[in-house]
Write a structure and sequence with these properties.
Length: 150
């Protein structure tokens, strides 16, 4: 009682159609390859538990996770832009009461501080060598949220 489980799993086989690719700096990789940002496997799993806490206060505990198998973040599918399989976990605890306008929530995103690249790109206007830039995922963040209803 009080426990809710949620989950989902997706399997996707994606592929660029055959076409004549033009790439002036590297051999074409797109025709017949897996589409960018398309992991073969992805899934989510979450558990929420709600219970009475103290007096007329209730508590809600939630842990959620997201899994992806490896995928490439580059529009040109450069192997250096590949992200290995990863799991990201988030958690939160809430304390609330029907007799109070306040709710207190403690939370953490990317709880285990998983390092990964969200997008990797070729850095423009850098010659003659090829360099890369990347947008990294947010590191572990945590905080407290206080809500009040009027």
């Amino acid at each position: 009682e009080g426990l809710t489980l949620q989950g989902g799993l997706a399997y996707a086989e994606t592929q660029y159609d055959d076409f004549e690719a033009v790439d002036f700096f590297a051999p074409p990789r797109l025709p017949g390859s897996t589409i960018s940002f398309a992991p073969r496997w992805s899934g989510t799993l979450a558990a929420t538990y709600e219970t009475s806490f103290i007096s007329d206060w209730d508590a809600r505990f939630n842990v959620s996770s997201r899994f992806t198998s490896k995928y490439n973040t580059g529009s040109n599918l450069d192997p250096l832009k590949e992200v290995e399989e990863l799991v990201v976990v988030n958690a939160r605890m809430s304390f609330y009461s029907d007799n109070s306008p306040f709710e207190l929530e403690l939370w953490a995103q990317n709880l285990f501080d998983q390092d990964y690249t969200q997008v990797a790109i070729n850095t423009p206007f850098v010659a003659p060598q090829q360099t890369y830039s990347a947008y990294l995922a947010e590191p572990r963040t945590y905080g407290i949220t206080v809500r009040a209803g009027f």
